[in-house]
TrEMBL record:
This is Uncharacterized protein. The chain crosses the membrane at residues 44-63, 95-114, 134-152, 164-181, 187-207, 228-255, 267-285. Keywords: Membrane, Transmembrane, Transmembrane helix. The keyword Transmembrane helix applies. Signal peptide: none annotated. It comes from Hymenoscyphus albidus. Residues 302-341 are annotated as: Disordered. Residues 331-341 have a biased composition (Polar residues). Residues 304-316 have a biased composition (Basic and acidic residues).
Length: 341
């Protein structure tokens, strides 16, 4: 019995700045996150962001464009036009950045949002680096990735542009207000909720980037691409549903701590983000159907449009046959009723 009580107390505890557990009443861990600054490095966010821009430029200019993509993909890469080539490179930047963020931030994110740590808890036992330090840097990394995409790509849909601008503005806003806790007491929980949004963005958007890369590399493997796009469609839809359930549950559990502005704005922003993700699901559905149509054309089987035309022609043939039969029936009936019959 004592061991059960000990486990319960540990689950209901939050680590303080010195790593010691601070006990709370039962409930989701996020409801016990103290109001505190994200990181001592927050005032230097602009400098960190500029360093990330320089790193992305160096990787793009002196590594990917210089030789790596051409060496690995050969004529597949060199034969692309400028628009597709930029998009292809951007997808590689996005995949690498998301993978790096996932590896670096998985542990501190889960510990701060769902387990027992606070933003000021030591990172992996470090005496100098805190959970908040790491989460601040990876948040700025996600922002830098989206800024790069907006500037680098020559063609981007309004939906994608709106999504990226929203992530950039909301992430920057969450970091900025955390430096004024006196007037923004809900800044800490807003940052943690943004981390939840960002985590789903990292995971759910990883496969779509990989799918587009595969689409450029294997454009004639229609059955393979159909499966890839199907998985992308299902994963983005499932991720959106799960994200909505989790974020709204966390948002509701913190209801008493939100100011009126966040109570109104947060659901609206989530609807906008969810709409963008569902639009991605629709795009994957259309790409999957396109691959199915190409498969049918190659195998000689009629596609959706062809089947519709065949049904229409069949209906017309049946209608003509019915009219002809009616005419013949009337003629026979007329002849049978004539006086000389």
């Amino acid at each position: 019995m004592d061991s059960i009580l000990l486990v319960r107390d540990l689950l209901n505890a939050t680590e303080g700045a010195n790593g010691e557990p601070v006990h709370h009443k039962p409930g989701p861990h996020i409801t016990h996150v103290p109001t505190e600054s994200i990181s001592r490095a927050a005032p230097y966010s602009a400098l960190i962001l500029c360093i990330m821009f320089v790193v992305i430029f160096a990787v793009r200019h002196w590594l990917l464009e210089a030789f790596l993509l051409e060496k690995y993909y050969g004529t597949i890469y060199t034969s692309m036009d400028e628009t597709n080539r930029r998009g292809f490179l951007n997808h590689h930047i996005a995949v690498a950045t998301r993978l790096l963020i996932f590896i670096t931030a998985a542990y501190p994110f889960i510990d701060v949002a769902f387990v027992s740590a606070s933003l000021h808890s030591p990172y992996a036992g470090s005496k100098h680096v805190t959970m908040g330090d790491v989460l601040l840097v990876i948040s700025l990394g996600l922002i830098a990735m989206y800024v790069f995409e907006l500037f680098y790509r020559t063609k981007i849909s309004p939906i994608s542009a709106g999504h990226h601008i929203g992530v950039i503005m909301i992430g920057s806003f969450a970091i900025a207000i955390s430096m004024d806790l006196e007037h923004q007491p809900d800044a800490t929980i807003e940052f943690v909720l943004c981390l939840v949004w960002g985590a789903f963005d990292i995971i759910s958007e990883f496969l779509p980037h990989c799918a587009i890369i595969l689409y450029r590399v294997y454009p004639t493997r229609h059955n393979f691409l159909r499966k890839v796009f199907y998985i992308g469609m299902v994963s983005t839809f499932a991720s959106t549903v799960l994200e909505t359930i989790l974020t709204m549950c966390l948002f509701g559990s913190l209801w008493d701590r939100w100011s009126i502005g966040f109570k109104v704005a947060t659901p609206m922003l989530h609807v906008l983000f969810a709409s963008c993700q569902l639009w991605g699901t629709w795009i994957f559905y259309k790409m999957m159907k396109k691959q199915e149509r190409l498969i049918n054309e190659q195998s000689g089987m009629p596609g959706d449009m062809e089947r519709a035309l065949m049904r229409e022609k069949s209906d017309e043939t049946q209608s003509v046959s019915k009219k002809s039969a009616d005419v013949v029936t009337r003629e026979i009936s007329s002849n049978s009723q004539s006086p000389g019959s």
